[in-house]
Amino acid sequence: MKNLMVASSILSTDFAYLGKTLETINRSEADWLHVDIMDGMFVPNISFGTPVLQAIKKYNKKPVELHLMIAQPERYLDFFSKYGIDQITVHVEACLHLHSVVQQIKNLDCKAGVAFNPHTSLDCLEYIIKELDTVCLMSVNPGFGGQKLIPQTLKKIRELKRLIQNKNSKALIEVDGGVEENNVKEI
């Protein structure tokens, strides 16, 4: 499929077999590894901490995107960048000063992504889209795996694509949640 990249997520892995999971991903055709960091405040679940990031750094061979579903992510960017992270994606809803947070990510020599919850308008992107490497559209409500794609996401993808083209941005569109073989073509 034209211009399609795949990120493998470890959110649902059995952590007793994390090394084997990472070896499988390393051998796969996935383009990068997607790691969801959840704090129990911005979203209702808690995910990984330092031991998992250390294991990922040790066993993983793919580029790593950290998807920070945490309140005030700017407090932890320096910490996360120490684990060989290639891209850090923060939620627009969690950043009081989005431009400043994006600049902080870039200053850590990481690619910068911004994620949007399903109900959040893309309006704020007009002034920052050219500085972003990725815009992540949540197609489910964040914090829980295994949900079905919210159909309105398809309209939002088209809207985002128009904005990227109109602003001559190089940002990639990432769709997170509910992506399956039966809907990937439509996405």
UniProtKB/TrEMBL annotation:
- Record carries keyword Metal-binding: yes
**What gene name is given for the protein in this entry?**
rpe
Q: What is this protein called?
A: Ribulose-phosphate 3-epimerase
Record's Pfam families?
Ribul_P_3_epim
Q: Which residues bind substrate?
A: 9, 67, 143-146, 178
State which Enzyme Commission number(s) the record gives. Answer: 5.1.3.1
What do the Gene Ontology cellular component annotations say?
A: cytoplasm
Family in the record? Belongs to the ribulose-phosphate 3-epimerase family.
The answer to whether keyword Isomerase applies is yes
Gene3D superfamilies per record: Aldolase class I
Please name the source species. Antarcticibacterium arcticum
The catalytic site is made up of 36, 176
